[in-house]
TrEMBL record:
Protein family: Belongs to the short-chain dehydrogenases/reductases (SDR) family.
Keyword Oxidoreductase among record annotations: yes
Alphabetical list of NCBIfam families matching this protein: PRK06482.1 (NF005065)
Pfam families linked: adh_short (PF00106)
Protein name, entry field: Short-chain dehydrogenase/reductase
Protein source organism: Saccharothrix coeruleofusca
Oxidoreductase as UniProt keyword: yes
Record key words, sorted: Oxidoreductase
GO MF, one annotated term: oxidoreductase activity
Amino acid sequence: MTRTWFITGTSSGFGRELTEQLLRRGDRVAATARRPHTLDDLAARHGDQLWRAALDITDTTALREVVDRAFAELGRIDVVVSNAGYGLFGAAEELTDEQIDRQIATNLTASIQLARAATPHLRRQGGGRFVQIASVGGQIAFPAMSLYHATKWGIEGFWESAAAELAPFGIDVTIVEPGVSRTNFGAGGSVLGPPLPEYADGPSGQLRRMAAGELPPLPAPGDPAKIAAAIIARADQAGGPLRLTLGSDAYALATDALGNRLRALEAQRELAHSTDADS
């Protein structure tokens, strides 16, 4: 059965890979990007299967207009994928106010506003699915990525709550948590804050140099094509777990982080109970 998808950030990375695979299997894709001409080759091959719109997702008014137009012109959208985002590297002290505002607006606020814009349409049509491309960075944290992690931990909390709100309307939610993948997220697709010499020799400075391409990058086991295929397969299934962790590194990092947090919590059991009111 042909399905229709709405995807943000389709010019590169997971968004582009998802769009290509979906078009090849015969689905329709409403693809948004700041530069929709980057999809000219796909439009030439797939014609009316591909619906395109220019969109800066931080422009909430434009975001709502594009979502409304996509539903109006395509009739029904089965899956809404919030994919657009980028990495911001630098210790919190190093980042500019503008960089902080842009990171939150792109990675967090825009995803929330996309959900708010699409929910009335999905509710009226009797259901659908949201797919949030998040990151294992919503479960773990590295130095020099504090603002990036803030957005990813934030979107995890948003969807944890919103999934329960939407379930009665037949709207499913999948949070995708990839590890390091072979996309342009690193040196090609990220932003660096202005460096302070005080951080140069510490862990923040080391990770910054990796992001800048001055040191060998972290291993990137994730295959974007396989990750996109796994996302599509999950979206084809009714229900399913809220989170989809993809990549051997993501699995190992999340397992370690969650285990450490659980052990730290268990060690505080008596203290936690001791602060209850006597009555």
